[in-house]
Amino acid sequence: MGLDITAYRQVAIAPVVEVYEDGSPVDWQNFRRAWVNPDFTGRADEIEHGAIYSFKERFRFRAGGYGYYGQWREKLARLAGYPLTEYREGHHVEHLHAAACWNGATGPFFELICFADNQGVLGTAVSAKLAGDFAEFEAAASTRSGDFFESYLEWKKAFEIAADGGMVDFH
Fold this sequence. Notes:
The chain is α+β, with helices and mostly antiparallel strands.
């Protein structure tokens, strides 16, 4: 199991599309049903929950397993300068940079760091903001070791595409 990302450019609600019983489009190559995550308001205001969209272009990549993505997101939070912040899950306590966003801090990459790691869409306005964040921090990200920067560039491309009237789909 892991996280896949698909970015769509110039989405539009499709008037009539053949769907399966679950509401997903039969022609999944040309249409996508949007799932707006109710736990993260304001992330996809331009997108209608459950609507089926056509699109002009799509870009897909694998963000990795959930553990890998969590580690990558932590590195992104550190790159953005968020402070180490206590995070508690039951009796387990950690100090993470990403936890600053989870506890209400805002700034670069906030909308991505503090978003579901399994499903939902980010809309055009949020994608445009994040594309700007990725452009601003690209030079600093390029100095990081490992495959962090390769993933960074995939995320950057996804948000640049979605900033053009589109959305980024976490699935």
